[in-house]
Amino acid sequence: MAYATTYPYTGEVLETFPTATDAEVARAIDAAHAAFLAWRETSFAARGAILQKAADLLRKDADAYAKLLTLEMGKLFTEAKAEVELSAKIFEYYVQNAESLLRPEKLTVADPAEGEAVIVCEPLGVLLAIEPWNFPYYQIARIIAPQLSAGNTMLLKHASNVPQSAAAFERLMREAGLPEGAFINLYATRSQVETIINDPRVHGVALTGSEDAGAVVAAQAGKALKKSTMELGGADAFVVLADADMAKTIKWAVFGRHWNGGQVCVSSKRMIIVDAVYDEFLARYREGVAGLRAGDPFAPETTLAPLSSQAAADEIKEKIRQAVAHGAKAEQIGPPVPNQGAFVQPTILTDVADDNPARYWEFFGPVSMLFRARDENDAVRIANDSPFGLGGSVFTSDTKHGADVARKISTGMVFVKSDQGRGRPALRRHPPLRLRTRIAGARPQGVRQSQADRRRRHRRPVLTARRASPAPCVARVTCDGWVGRWIPVAPASAYPFRPVRFFAFAARLRPGAAARAGPRAARPPVSAVSSGRSLASLARSGSRSAKPSSTRGAGAPSPATASAPAGAAVWLSACKRRHASPR
Asked: What's the pTM?
């Protein structure tokens, strides 16, 4: 792939950049790992001071940072400035909240005599972020802010059409005082991405992009037994009920579908209107879209930006043609867009039948699909008839009733908009981190995303334990997980991730168990050992030379667990069952 800055409004190639060499990639991994060894010991206050400085620098040079966004991916200059401010707010959110979010949390156990369970958050190491071009700064800020706050270090492979934005953010973090190697931008190739994922010092990868790219990276991560998170697009339902305030609804619809040129994962791509108000909505929506003005993204009067590239524009036009070929009706709206630049004429698609494949596509541009629903139940049916599950919204004058409708929509997050003011998130299908847990094998529920993401298996467990010689001991099981957490920063599409380790502490072993406990006070400190050691080989009271059993497979405990304490064997089995169960 070629890394280049091409101005979408004119098609002019402003600057090109060579891809990274294999030696540069190797040095970057070395530097990121070396930085992690020191960064993980840094206090929350020190980490927060750097993030706050980055936020201050973004605001200080907001126009310069925004100009680069417009030049590289074509977004309106006003929207680019808003993205700079949003990125600064994300930094400040973690400055204020990271320490409390990562504070150890004691869990309630069924029988206190069995011991206690505590969630302890620890950094994992070097992580790789593969980010898209639609929000070049925001996509970086939403991943590095939580990860740096948690003590991890980051490697970035950004989209090939925003190389200067990626480099600018790397310079920003250095200027803010981030240690060398803690955040590195790489103009990596696809083969180098696989090399990075396979490096044992890299502990996970987060990708935002297409399902095709996600499938490739997830397969590579799975083969390497690495953690991965995929956000693979969306086709959000915009449900309009009969009692909606039509004037406000139309304004939200026009904005929600066309901001950032329509290139937003959580934009309102599928508008589902109940029959009673469908005709009124369609007529007024036409008028609203016709009021958009395409042109120079730096001009204040421009309200519709070009797409990020000519290739992206051509792809959208081809999808429209295919939708029409399968029976849909396409209506171009508004004055003609400029002949130069990567523009697409705003288009409304109607009569998209159940057997039309376009019904299940994501149109990443100014294309609106409108669906007439017989009633509210039919609106919910249409909303749920999608392979995507990212977000959605319900428009009504009755917030309580809107929440009831929202609960029936199977997607990650649904907003309810009423005529009483700003909308609020009525339902998050997968709430912020709350554990549904047994005594071991904790199973966190993350953010529901695309269909491909929902098919992912959960993270593999890693077991660690420490045997305290023949004296009293407490066996410890650790299951690593990497889960999503919604952060209340507008727009509500941030997907920061935090590394979590789940610690289950066993009760003191009773007389008669395979490993007999002496006085508790004599127990030496419990500490973690390498994840390759098995619980059985550490907790048993017999020989220390027993071979460790693998924690990667599923099924019954290995023979080595036969002489382990009963609780330890149960925990080992539970973690294996967790590994074997699909998410």
From this structure: 0.74
